Amino acid sequence: MIDEKLALLRAHRNNIGRYRRLLKTELTEFERQFIEKRLAEERSAIEQLAASTFPIAFETANRALANASAFMTAGSHG
User: Fold this and answer.
1) Farthest-apart Cα atoms in the chain, separation
2) How confident is the model at residue 78 (pLDDT cuts 50, 70, 90)?
């Protein structure tokens, strides 16, 4: 089960790399929009898959980010 999820993560990562490379080429506006949409979909898919595969690590990371944001916001008002 974990091997399948890791393989999916790799596939999404590879797709993201491919789309990034394509965005560096000369494209029509339609092609660029299509690739940017696909890139956003791949990023979302990889985030969801990673969060479901490693829920504790992402929960802890999200909590740390929220705490850091709250600390920085509180510090800027004082």
Assistant:
1) 49
2) very low
Q: Is residue 64 predicted with pLDDT exceeding 80?
A: no
Distance between CA atoms of 51 and 55, rounded to whole angstroms? 5
Contact 64, 41 (CB under 8 A): no
Question: What is the C-alpha to C-alpha distance for residues 24 and 34, in angstroms, rounded to an integer?
Answer: 14
Structural domain boundaries in the chain: 2-76
**Structural contact between residues 1 and 49, judged by C-beta atoms closer than 8 angstroms:** no
Q: What is the C-alpha separation between 51 and 65, in angstroms, rounded? A: 15
Instruction: Quick: pLDDT tens for 14-63.
Output: 999 999 999 999 999 999 999 999 999 999 999 898 888 776 655 555 56
CB 35 within 8 A of CB 23: yes
